[in-house]
Design brief:
Elements lengths: L8 E5 L2 E4 H21 L8 H21 L7 H16 L13 H30 L9 H37 L5 H30 L1 H14 L6 H4 L8
Antiparallel strand pairs: 1-2
Helix pairs in contact: 1-3, 2-6, 3-6, 4-5, 4-6, 5-6
Length: 249
C-alpha cells in the first residue's frame, strides 16, 4: 500500500499532473451539479414527494445553522450546505471500488481548510467592513493582536489535520483488513466508515460556521435576529414586542 503522502499521476494536462484523487473530485463535483439541477428544475407551489424531501433537507440545514450560530441561515446556506455535501461524498467515495477518496489526500484537505479560511475573511469583511474586521483582531485589547492572528491560522490547520487523519486512518484500516482477511470481513468496518464520513463532514461544516459567525460579529447577529422576528421565524423579544409608551412617543 502506497503512502498517503504520495500521489501518482494518472495522466498529464500539459505540465499539470492529474491524480486519481483529482479525477474523483471532478466526478463528485459533476455529480453534485447535475444532481442539484435535476432535483430543482421543476419546483412547484404544491410540493410533491421529491420536492418535499428536498425542502425537509433544507429546513434541517437551516435549523442546524440557526442552532449552531444563532445567525439567520440564508447568507450561509449555500456555502455550508455545499461544503457538507462535498466532504460527505468525498468521504463515502472510499467505499467505491477503484476510487480514491479525495479527503484522504493532503492537498484536498488543505484546499478545503484554505477555503474556510478565505470564507471567514469574506463574510467578516462583508458584514463589518475592512476596518471593522481588522479591529476584531484587537479584541479584547491590542495586546491580543498576535495571538488572535495566530489563532486564525492554527484553527484552519487543525481542521485540515482532523479531516485528513480521520479519513486516511479509516481507509488504511479497511485496506489492511481486506488484504489480510478477505472481502467479507471488512463489511462491518465499511458501515462504520459511512458513519465516520458523515460525522467528519458534519463536524467540518459546523466548525466552518462557528468560525464564520465569530468573524461576522454580534451586530450582524442582532440584525439577523431582527430579520427573523420580522419573518416570524423567531418570537419577538420584549423590547421589540412591547408597544411604545407615552414617554417614548
Amino acid at each position: 500500500m502506497k503512502s498517503p503522502l504520495e500521489s501518482l499521476p494518472l495522466f498529464h494536462i500539459g505540465p499539470i499532473p492529474i491524480t486519481q484523487a483529482v479525477v474523483t473530485t471532478w466526478a463528485i463535483m459533476l455529480l453534485l451539479v447535475v444532481g442539484a439541477f435535476l432535483l430543482t428544475r421543476r419546483l412547484e407551489l404544491i410540493p410533491g414527494r421529491r420536492q418535499a424531501a428536498l425542502e425537509l433537507l433544507v429546513d434541517t440545514l437551516d435549523t442546524q445553522i440557526r442552532e449552531t450560530t444563532g445567525a439567520r441561515p440564508a447568507p450561509y446556506r449555500a456555502f455550508s450546505g455545499t461544503l457538507f455535501l462535498f466532504i460527505l461524498a468525498a468521504n463515502w467515495s472510499s467505499l467505491v471500488p477503484g476510487a480514491e477518496p479525495p479527503t484522504a489526500q493532503l492537498e484536498t484537505d488543505a484546499a478545503l481548510a484554505v477555503l474556510v479560511f478565505l470564507s471567514v475573511i469574506w463574510f467578516g469583511v462583508r458584514s463589518r467592513g475592512v476596518k471593522g474586521y481588522l479591529k476584531s483582531f484587537a479584541a479584547p485589547n491590542p495586546v491580543m493582536i498576535p495571538l488572535n492572528m495566530l489563532e486564525s491560522f492554527t484553527r484552519t490547520f487543525s481542521m485540515f489535520v482532523r479531516l485528513f487523519g480521520n479519513v486516511m486512518s479509516g481507509v488504511f484500516i479497511i485496506g489492511i483488513i481486506a488484504s489480510l482477511a478477505g472481502l467479507l470481513v471488512p463489511i462491518p468496518l465499511m458501515a462504520l466508515e459511512l458513519l465516520t464520513g458523515l460525522v467528519q463532514a458534519y463536524i467540518f461544516a459546523v466548525l466552518a460556521m462557528v468560525f464564520i459567525t465569530a468573524a461576522v460579529g454580534d451586530h450582524a447577529h442582532h440584525r439577523n435576529r431582527q430579520d427573523a422576528e420580522t419573518d416570524g421565524l423567531l418570537p419577538a423579544t420584549e423590547e421589540s414586542a412591547s408597544p411604545p409608551t407615552e414617554r417614548d412617543s
